[in-house]
Amino acid sequence: MRNLHALALDSCCIHLFCRHKQHNFSFCCTTQKRTHIFSSWWLCKAGLVLSCKSRAMCTGGLLITSRSLLWFLVTLIACMTLFGAIVLPKWLIGPEVIQIRNEEGNFTVLRHPSVGIYNRCKRMGRIEYNCGNFDLNGLLTDSTVFPVPWKFTMTLMCVGTMLLGLTLVSTLVTCCRLHSVYGFSMHKLLCIFQGVSAMLVLCGYLVYPLAWDAPRVRTLCGPDSEAYSPADCTLGVSIYLGAAGVLLTFLSTVLSRKAEAAYYSSKAQRRVIDGQVLVCVM
Length: 282
Fold this sequence. Notes:
Blueprint: E1 4-9, E2 13-18, E3 23-28, E4 38-44, E5 47-52, E6 62-65, H1 66-87, E7 92-93, E8 98-101, E9 108-111, E10 114-115, E11 119-124, E12 128-133, H2 148-174, E13 180-181, E14 184-185, H3 186-207, H4 215-221, E15 234-235, H5 237-263, H6 266-273, E16 278-281
Parallel strand pairs: 6-16
Antiparallel strand pairs: 1-2, 2-3, 4-5, 7-10, 7-15, 8-9, 10-11, 11-12, 13-14
């Protein structure tokens, strides 16, 4: 400890002067305790690394790491894919081919009837192709029109996607060095919420095929359609978007722990201790 020239302790900050490097170091803690603030510290040739017992860091700046940026982007893409899976009526594609001519009759567009979670596309009349919702009364719609498993899918996937969207906004808060709430790590808290969100959307995704024996689906896919077997129908783009969204949601849960490790890395903390307002760590 011969390199430690002075130690000034007040209600919120510790100021250190390293005689070996001839640099001043300041490290602020959010706690108001005057004693037992730091659990340990290490002095080395490269500089000063401090470990706060409450693992607190200075607030009032930005700390962006490559892992936190990757975490944000994966969470954003997961939200977008899940939203697309919910709103697009392309979970099951029927075998029928609908030919639609333009007004001039120059070309013909080929369409297929399809169904989503709460909406469908089908032929209306001879040449009209219409997409619309069939959940006219929401979750209170008759089960013969809006099957019960699809109601569960709608509820679980919407709740899971909204929860994931909230964690997406909260990832921006962690970049502002707000790293704990009532002493609990923000990264761990968001990891839990994203894990819950992933389980919700997964359950909703797996419940959807249970209604493939419903009258609506058999009209579209044929009388042999049953749970997890769509008979003559093919899987649409929405079902692949849903699968990708579920996997990305689980991946974002894992990346939240990686982002936390990068947040508390010695390289990032040393630059915060140096007083840099904008810290970017690769």
